[in-house]
Design a protein that fits this description.
With 371 residues, the protein is α/β, with parallel strands linked by helices. It has two domains: 7-65, DNA polymerase, domain 1 (Orthogonal Bundle); 70-370, TIM Barrel, CATH 3.20.20. The protein contains twelve helices and 14 strands. The protein has a ten-stranded mixed beta sheet with strand order 3-4-5-6-9-10-11-12-13-14. Strands 1-2 form a two-stranded parallel sheet. Helix 10 links the parallel strand 12 and strand 13. The protein starts with 6 loop residues before the first strand and ends with a helix. The structure holds S-adenosyl-L-homocysteine and iron/sulfur cluster. Iron/sulfur cluster (SF4) is lined by residues 117, 119-121, 124, 126-127, 171-172, 205, 225. This is Dual-specificity RNA methyltransferase RlmN. Pfam families: Radical_SAM, RlmN_N. It is found in: Cytoplasm. One of its GO terms (biological process) is rRNA base methylation. Belongs to the radical SAM superfamily. RlmN family.
Length: 371
């Protein structure tokens, strides 16, 4: 008998799950039952689905599965930040990282969308790794399930363990469009994780055509990684700018906001690198550039990684940059680094893992020599 690949129901959007049930001759409402079991109650097997008939459970068992990606490791920082290394289906070294950052009554999960990234921003360790592969919808939503389950069995009536999701882990989410959209729909759907659309944020380095497409498909919040106030500098730091320059990106941001059903702002992310993009003139230039955009600015002091060639600015320089923007009328936050002891900060997500991979490869080699 040939081995038929089972359909992994974990990553199917509500719409696709309905299609699937109809395709196997079952009623629509079965999809609603199953989606609640998987995403609200955390079921990992069909046996647990007590309101689904035994016959249907047996049928599902034959042709489908509920499979989250494998957790290679979980670390909990002294400040409560949790970090997981998750193995994807590509092979033993195809791993990504997921980070949960608690902050008062909020807990923000930073989710990865790709193994590596093809866009090669000069200051990003994920970019330095190159592009490896896209995550599947199950691997993306699986990161949410893993984080929630790390607190014990799921309880649909208990307090939310993850209140916000940011697509700011490894990879460029708009370069893995369909799987990311499906996973975000699940994050927000009432029968799945029920997060508010204001609390699900996609961060992009500026894949302009996809910004236009995104607003047709979802109404998540948008963060744009700008990092420079002019094309000359942005071309160096964020190479995709050569294809989609700042003026086009700004136009896409305006379109995005104008087509949302409610009033929202764009979050502008600006990683501050000492002596590169953090001087007073650049702060004024940025203030001028953004003056017609409804936005808030988030400054991210550069997170160092080996051989990056960049440095984080002093606190004084960061504060001066922030003040110029604040004086120009912007709401400006400075991101504080969390999970320092487990290397969980933005842009540090892969260097550390590669080191660990090399270490584990060495270990495997040693074992092979021994045996
Ligand atoms: N690809 C998407 C999302 C992932 S990166 C994007 O670029 O927006 C998430 C954020 O971390 C981006 O704003 C990115 O520019 C920033 N970042 C990357 N490397 C960093 C580093 N070493 N220090 C600080 N921020 C970094
Ligand atoms: Fe890719 Fe974002 Fe890193 Fe740029 S900053 S290389 S787009 S992950």
């Amino acid at each position: 008998m040939t081995d038929i690949k089972k359909v992994n129901l974990l990553g199917l959007s509500p719409e696709k799950l309905i299609e699937f049930f109809e395709s196997i001759g079952e009623k629509k409402f079965r999809a609603t039952q199953v989606i609640k079991w998987i995403h609200q109650k955390g079921a990992e097997s069909f046996d647990e689905m007590t309101d689904v008939s035994k016959a249907l459970r047996a049928k599902l068992e034959q042709i489908c599965e509920i499979r989250a990606p494998e957790v290679v490791s979980q670390n909990i920082s002294a400040d409560g930040t949790r970090k997981w290394i998750i193995r994807t289906e590509g092979g033993k070294n195809d791993c990504v990282e997921t980070v949960l950052i608690p902050d008062g009554d909020r807990a923000t999960l930073c989710v990865s969308s790709q193994v590596g990234c093809s866009l090669d921003c000069s200051f990003c360790s994920t970019g330095k790794q190159g592009f490896n592969r896209n995550l599947t919808p199950a691997e993306i939503i699986g990161q949410v399930a893993i984080a929630i389950k790390s607190f014990g069995p799921m309880d649909p009536n208990g307090p939310r363990r993850v209140t916000n999701v940011v697509m700011m882990g490894m990879g460029e989410p708009l370069m893995n469009f369909e799987p990311v959209v499906d996973a975000m729909i699940l994050m927000m759907h009432d029968h799945a994780y029920g997060l508010s659309k204001r609390r699900v944020t996609l961060s992009t380095s500026g894949v302009v055509p996809k910004i236009y497409e995104l607003v047709k498909r979802t109404d998540v919040s948008l963060a744009v990684s700008l990092h420079a106030p002019n094309d000359a500098l942005r071309n160096e730091l964020v190479p995709i700018n050569k294809k989609y320059p700042i003026a086009e990106l700004m136009e896409a941001c305006q379109f995005y906001l104008a087509n949302l059903p409610d009033k929202r702002h764009i979050t502008i992310e600006y990683t501050l690198m000492s002596g590169v993009n953090d001087n007073e003139e650049q702060a004024h230039e940025l203030a001028e550039l953004l003056k017609t955009l409804e936005c808030k600015i988030n400054l991210i002091p550069f997170n160092p990684f080996p051989h990056s060639g960049y440095e984080k600015p002093s606190n004084n320089r960061t504060r001066r940059f922030q003040k110029i923007l604040a004086d120009a009328g912007y709401t400006v936050t400075v991101r504080t680094t969390r999970g320092d002891d487990i290397d969980a900060a933005c842009g540090q997500l892969v260097g550390d893992f590669q080191d660990r991979t090399r270490r584990s490869q060495k270990y495997i080699e040693l074992r092979e020599v021994k045996s």
